[in-house]
Amino acid sequence: MKFNYSNKLSKVILIGILIAALIVTSGCTNKSTSSDNGSSPSETSGVSDADKAAESGALTLKDGFDREVTIPENVERVVCSGAGCLRYLVYLQAQDDVVGVDSLEKEESAFEGRPYALANPQLKDYPLIGEFRGKDDPEKIIAISPQVILKTGTSGQSAATNGADADTLQNKTGIPVVMFPYGSLKNEEQKAEMYNSLRIMGQVVGKQERAEEVINYINATMQDLENRTADIPESERKTAYIGGVSMAGAHGIISTEPAYPPFLWVNANNVAAGMGADHADIAKEALVDWDPEYIFIDIGTLQVGNEGAIGELKNDTSLSGLSAVKNKKVYGVIPYNYYSTNYESVLANAYFVGKVLYPDRFEDIDPEAKADEIYTFFLGKPVFSELNGQYDNLGFKSIPL
């Protein structure tokens, strides 16, 4: 039999071409199916946006106003905007990540009531990012190239308004903005806000463990204060008044805090407790009527001039009959309302107040040494003496009138 090799070869080539065509067609069909059903490659494979961010060396988190923000995985360059933001960063031991500061951080003043600034004088030398209280200059921020902008919310504004402010700054700079409320220690809701903000900031700068250390330290300190005085009967609790309280500046004797935390934490009876939750200005006649056993003066009052509240107690005849004045029970405490709350000073004040009112419950406490222990934990340095020196060394002592 005679074979036709030419025909056989043609058939083999034809079969090969058909097989190749089927393979190409199959590939096209798969791509078409993915495109036709409207799904992206990541959706069909089950990869989320957060997973994609992780794969690209980025992290997506929720800030304190429920905004989703994507930031670099390793953040080493930040700026802090708004009252108290830089203080929290110092608490977290991440001040070396700062590359710019606002106008208040650069001010020179005879009175420096921010312990974190005393502990970190180098911050004054950093480039300017805008005006204080969150009035940022986007162009100045862009010029120093931070990886993330950390920003405290503006008190009195809604979460939606604060979130919109963050979005505006982020859109203008092209830099992720992580925003959060400052919070406080005045009630459980505000304390939860504060702790959440510390945790968010810790997540951004890789200081999660330190954030938990700070939270645990605050809780343990507040618990210690409570344990020392909780069993004092109501009838034996001392009456006290705090005057000259700083609030957006220095004030005189009528400026007070009805919910002054050191009084709450050592179970003192604040004679102004019925005046509201935060700051209040009272009538001098009310102070005379209350006639507290003890008066504490926020020595930030010295910035008013004429010794502020101290001068009033010395020279105002309507106040000369107060029991605390006559019995020499007027004491100075460290100012803590300066560009929002300096919590380390709040805690230090509480131990001094407790020592004055209930010396037997605080017999193991040297208030100045305790203050430096607290400052060292939060700020890395014992700054009590330097801080007190800003105010004629009137803190933690009886004030002569």
From TrEMBL:
Compositional bias (Polar residues): 31-47
Residues spanning the membrane: none
Entries under CDD domains matching the protein: HemV-2 (cd01147)
PANTHER family according to UniProt: MOLYBDATE-BINDING PROTEIN MOLA, VITAMIN B12-BINDING PROTEIN
Record-linked InterPro entries: ABC_Transporter_SBP (IPR050902), ABC_transptr_periplasmic_BD (IPR002491)
Native organism: Methanosarcina vacuolata Z-761
Taxonomic lineage from the root: Archaea, Methanobacteriati, Methanobacteriota, Stenosarchaea group, Methanomicrobia
Domain Fe/B12 periplasmic-binding as annotated: residue spans: 77-361
Protein name: Iron(III) dicitrate-binding protein
Pfam families (alphabetical): Peripla_BP_2
Annotated stretches, region: Disordered: 31-51
